[in-house]
Specification:
By secondary structure, the chain is of the alpha+beta class. The chain has 22 helices and 11 strands. α9 runs antiparallel to α17, α17 packs across α19 and α17 runs parallel beside α22.
């Protein structure tokens, strides 16, 4: 008789509770992962139906997966299921096709290109700021979604074409919010896709989101093709001219390729930033000392004028506030990979096809790197404090060749919008209860998120 060698698998809860694990992930995903890391250490695992899930909470191991040995890992299954809506864009594609698309798109996010959007960001934020009345209690999540949509539409398509895009937003959001990192145990990709296609109370099938996007995007692309590939200063122009400017050669992107990249940029550059900005304003309303520091900096650097892109490095505390928001409530709260072959991580065997989770929410709340981790404290982001921590103890934008290509755009937008709004208004809490969050594809406020705005 022969016996199979016992594999040195990571520690974790008994497999007999695998249905309980899936339900816990759907009900309280961050709580489940935080408890898993606290009990079983930096490498742990659990079963979710036929799937073996490994959670990493060590910065060096996270870097190993995202950077050092990234060639051994592919994207997780959740994003593969979202290809129904997003297509083969930068977020979902793999291999050489992904690498080529990234090279073509990078010039659209060059520092000089982002700098050209600084005035656009401030102007749109000023429109939102000026519409508020002293003592009003706006739903800041709804307000930030409307604001970031206007900004990303103008940056992607220009002011004229961008006006058509918002009508696709509601069905798109409805579609995205139906996707979960985990479906019921044993449910294959086709069954999962059938599940999320099922209409909810709205009576609107998921395909409506895709169709609404396609109608708007393909119309805009066709109009641009007729005009010729001139640079109009927006990101769509850069995509249509990408081959010429990159020196890649070959045929231009097809309409379908352009569509997929535009949709990815819209989705990634809209609700994720809105969630972060709304959370930052909510946190400001609950921390008067932080708000006072912010106002002092804005008075000194800006005076009475709107912020410009060149002000961003001088707005030190505003940057620290944004970084602490991204630490405490990262919109991209988890990222996943699947090893294409058996690998060893932290001395443990991880079989091919396992789902490897790395959660910014978990690692960024580890007391070894961020003492008193659930306390909101922008002072964590002084230069000396940052140098004292491992590189991947903080990774809200991912890492390696799949690091978010729009990181510079998002950070610039965050600083400019916060500075514009807080220069005019002081934020006060409406309720004593902290915000509640829904953790799906992204982390976002659950329900209305209101603050009182008071003229300074």
């Amino acid at each position: 008789m022969s016996t199979r060698p016992r594999l040195n698998l990571p520690p974790g809860p008994p497999s007999v509770f695998q249905l309980r694990h899936v339900l816990a992930l759907r009900r309280d995903p961050t709580g489940f992962l935080l408890r898993l890391a606290a009990r079983y250490g930096d490498v742990s695992h659990f079963r979710a139906g036929p799937l073996r899930v490994v959670l990493l909470n060590d910065p060096d191991l996270i870097k190993d997966v995202l950077v050092t040995r990234q060639h051994l890992f592919r994207k997780g299954a959740a994003l593969q299921r979202m290809k129904f809506l997003l297509g083969e864009g930068l977020l979902t594609s793999e291999g050489e096709f992904h690498d080529r698309q990234r090279r073509l798109i990078l010039p659209a996010f060059h520092r000089q290109r982002i700098a050209s959007y600084g005035d656009l960001m401030a102007a749109h934020a000023a429109r939102t700021r000026d519409a508020w009345a002293d003592g009003a209690t706006p739903d800041i999540y709804a307000e930030m979604k409307a604001l970031t949509m206007r900004i990303v539409c103008d940056a992607l398509f220009g002011a004229d074409a961008g006006r058509e895009f918002p009508r696709a937003a509601e069905p798109v959001n409805d579609t995205i919010n139906r996707f979960h990192l985990f479906g019921p145990p044993g449910l294959g990709p086709k069954a999962l896709l059938t599940l999320v296609r099922t209409p909810r109370r709205t009576g609107r099938p998921v395909s409506t989101g895709r169709d609404a996007l396609n109608e708007v995007v393909y119309k805009i692309i066709a109009e641009r093709r007729r005009e010729g590939a001139r640079d109009r200063g927006d990101l769509l122009s850069m995509l249509l001219r990408a081959e010429v400017e990159s020196g890649e050669g070959g045929a231009p992107m097809t309409d379908e390729q352009v569509r997929d990249e535009v949709v990815i940029l819209f989705v990634a550059g809209y609700e994720t930033i809105a969630s972060t900005l709304a959370t930052a304003l909510h946190l400001l309303s609950r921390h008067s000392d932080v708000q006072a520091r912010l106002h002092a900096e804005l008075d000194e650097v800006l005076g009475e004028r709107l912020p410009a892109y060149d002000d961003i490095p001088r707005l030190t505390y505003t940057n620290m506030l944004l970084a602490e928001t991204l630490r405490d409530f990262p919109a991209a709260w988890v990222t996943s990979r699947r090893p294409s072959e058996d690998v060893e991580l932290g001395g443990f065997h991880v079989p091919a096809g396992s789902l490897v989770l790395m959660s910014p929410h978990v690692t960024q709340h580890d007391a070894r790197y961020f003492p008193d981790p659930f306390r909101f404290d922008p002072e964590r982001w002084t230069e000396s404090a940052q140098r004292s921590r491992p590189e991947f103890s903080y990774f809200p934008f991912g890492g390696g060749k799949r690091r978010c290509v729009g990181e510079g755009f998002a950070l610039a937008e965050g600083v400019v919008v916060l500075a514009t709004l807080a220069r005019r208004w002081r934020f006060a809490p409406v309720s004593g209860r902290p915000a509640q969050f829904h953790y799906g594809v992204i982390a976002r406020p659950a329900g209305n998120l209101r603050v009182r705005v008071e003229r300074r």
